[in-house]
């Protein structure tokens, strides 16, 4: 890779070369310029750190490496080499790390997490825990009176401050402005239109949901727009981790304040729908258990968590129109009991991590192959500055590096 970078930096920008060997006569060599599409293809295959360096070579390279078609090509290639992403909260600050995501992890192997830009330390994760296209939705510190939302690229540290969510009588005609608040914020992406959107749910102090508002991040004028849904629903705290799959955002809610459902929001059409849960999900344990949403090989998956830690129970949505679910049950490996469930990799391995609220003496990620019934533990290094300190860590799978500079 280093030889490739050297070859690129020495040759790609050259259209002519003059070679002088005094006292011999001057000889000039004219080279045909390399087509832009070939340059984009070559650069998009390089590591992100190399792109950062090459932007400083010349104005023409900086322009090329900021073109939208190059950013799209880099993001596409980046998705073929997914990474693990970690957010660490300590002493009121947010720190972001990333490491390679092993495709065939070896037991007791070690990965080193790279620290990203410090500028994200001023912000906190929102209730939303989804990373979309390598970008995150963050908010101002909790002690601030006004909730400030920002859209951030953890790699570059660059961010966009979102307009304040309207909570006045005009946008919430049925509620006094002083009673209104933000209930939930969600982030979604439509791969067809290539648009990122933020969905905001607002409610009154009495708990009644009043409005849903959406904001398109890729548009020139970022304004909140109110959208309507025929049914009333509120967030369901028993269902964790919303997920966006193939342009549809899924999250848990209570319909009419009673029955639990999965709300699905189509990012492109901005239409709501809902999916009923299987009646056997949690059953009698629903009030004491949790349902965690995750991406199961391109389908909506749910991990059922109860007081019984000897089984791994997974539900997969087979048909949204008919509300059809399939159930899979596995024996829970003893090593990962009382660990934090993370999700499933693109290659189909279930992943756990060390407990989120953890004294950082050691942090591990566990990969469980369902077909082979094998468990692999991988140590994560790079958090040594927080050793023996209590920090809150979240782990994300299939993270793709995005060089969008905002």
UniProtKB/TrEMBL annotation:
Domain of life: Eukaryota
Segments forming domain F-box: 28-78
SUPFAM superfamilies linked: F-box domain
InterPro entries given in the database record: F-box-assoc_dom_typ3 (IPR013187), F-box-assoc_interact_dom (IPR017451), F-box-like_dom_sf (IPR036047), F-box_dom (IPR001810)
Pfam families assigned: F-box (PF00646), FBA_3 (PF08268)
Gene3D superfamilies tied to this protein: 1.20.1280.50
PROSITE patterns recorded: FBOX (PS50181)
PANTHER family: BNAA05G37150D PROTEIN-RELATED, F-BOX DOMAIN-CONTAINING PROTEIN
Record-given protein name: F-box domain-containing protein
